[in-house]
Amino acid sequence: MGEPAELSTGRGPACASRPVPFRRLFVANRGEVAARIARTCDRLGVTPVFGVSEADRDAPWARDRERVVLGPARADQSYLDPVRLVQAAVQSGASALHPGWGFLSESPRLAALCEVHGVTFVGPPAHVLALLGRKTPARRAMAAAGLALVPGSEGVLPGVEAARAVADSVGYPVLLKADAGGGGRGMRVVHRPEDLPAAFAEASAEARAAFGDGSLYLERLITGGRHVEVQVLVDRWGHAVHLGERDCTVQRHHQKLVEESPCPVLDPAQRRRACEAAAAAAASVGYVGAGTVEMLLDEQGVLRFMEMNARLQVEHPVTEMRTGLDLVEWQLRIAAGQRIALRQDEIRFEGHALECRINAEDPFDGFRPSPGRIARWRPPAEESGRLRVETHVVEGYEVPPHYDSLLCKLVAHDEDRDRAIARMLDALARFEVEGVRTTIALHRAILASEAFRANRYDTRTIPGWPPPVGEG
Amino acid sequence: MIARTLTALRAQEGTGRIVLRAPMVGWLSEVPRPGAWVWPGGPLGMLEVLGVRVRLLVPEDVEGRVVGPPRASARVAVDFGAPVVEIAPSPESGAIDAHAVAGERAEPATAGALVVRAPMSGRFYLRPSPGQPPFAAPGAVVERGQPVGLLEVMKTFHRIPFDGVGWPDRARVRRWLVADGEDVAAGARLVELEPAP
Fold first, then answer.
1. Out of A154, A305, A437, B111, which could bridge A147 as a Cys pair, Cβ 3.0 to 4.6 Å?
2. CB-based burial label for A6 (10 Å; 0-12, 13-18, 19+)
3. Which regions of chain B carry the CATH code 2.40.50.100?
4. Pairs across A and B, CB distance < 8 A
5. CATH T-level assignment (fold) for domain B108-195
6. Does the ipTM exceed 0.95?
């Protein structure tokens, strides 16, 4: 907040010199992503208008800015109500709406409502969001583009007998998943054939209750492996490029903690194949904007498609540092109908980038959330092209208990992985926070660990954590 | 789905005034002007939300005279929680509006009294027409919704019922507080009653 608007990717905006045609952009989100979008707006001369809940009325990212109070602190009556968001965008004179990440960022309904009321949605069209929200059409599109899938059913299962036949051919344990699913609902792990009928009935009933659709499909359960994802950009004219991959294997309970690029264990041929397939697949489903194809690198070294995220991702600065591109700027340009003025071979990847998510959580106490007032907040200073600090927090900020725990992202960039790790460790050591518990100590332990440096970890284990007794 | 009616939010100000607030973002219009009388469930304006006109209603426990703010007739964009009107409540709706009571010439109401007030300024009649018996003479028992008088406002006649939040179903008229055919201001005390068994 308050720092120079230029993003410190160090290489300046390598994109079209045409102005972004939006004068006013409605930001339908809060916290770190709201501050991130404002950074690009300031650089481009676009006025951001923030939709805020009552709890965020005086929040630092909206201070001295235009804002519309949407509703009470409860997200379902503020950030999760598409009617309030679009009406607020219309009445504040914004010509486009950025949904950020989380909340309604992948909601076909918000996209459709924007379209009906003459507000440009910064993201894919509603029908593409609806398609990607269903798992089996997305799987089919990715397979057609040449990506390997997790072995499983061709499409939606007609019944439990079909499920049994597929499970027998791919081998147990298997995972039943809701076609319309998400958030773990309508999902069941089945270890033995005799448990399949009951699990099928339960998952189907749960999916029907949660999504109004009980359709299921089935995959072999893959445990461990590494999480690798490919950033793609597709313009409204069908031109797609990829911006390389990110490795997000360091997780806890499916929440990412450390992200880096390039993936340290991927060979060049495999990387190239996966990235090109991801871009082609996104274009083939009519995708528009910035999106991410998530894959699993299994223990046999095969990259398999998991799902496509139809939005900007939290860890996008990792890609920005390596490519010198501002992804929020590209989102706006693409939404405005501008072409991506870059061929794939013009996109250059430099060095190694690493991101650490600083959350208001206590890693020593089961990652318990830690809301409260931030009495002291002294992040390390940004260094152009080398260190970025993405945050909405200022000293004295009261972390509200209503929303997620992300406080800040540190992004380090250097010539190679070891140097990037050293730069990050130095930045973490200089970061002073008091008033709430944070994950800073966790990140220091991870990055210093032999397991992290030698790539001996998968999605099930956090390298270097918990720390050996006597060091915590 | 967008609801077709929404109830305003209320907040009590230190001065005893009630501020009614917008329950939703939208374009606000047709808000009662200063001087107007508002009552529970009564209209407080229209809120246009994505092309849908939503009727904005006064909350159940609020009745009184609009005292501000002055408002342009054109529609305005409001945030959630934005003030719509400020109201000087009638004594029956909770906080006493000392300013309004002090200016009245009628003697103070007796304890336990129910006072029917004028919703608008106009000419008040105690009878349906000259020569006919009054709606409710002192001593008569009226039921909720039954008229106690007639208010002539700009050539139209409005029945003034015995009705109010928290009031009993039946009441006995104690006295008339204005003469038949008298000009009254919005909020003026008209008829005093007491609960009847």
1. A305
2. middle
3. 5-93, 108-195
4. 41
5. OB fold (Dihydrolipoamide Acetyltransferase, E2P) (2.40.50)
6. no
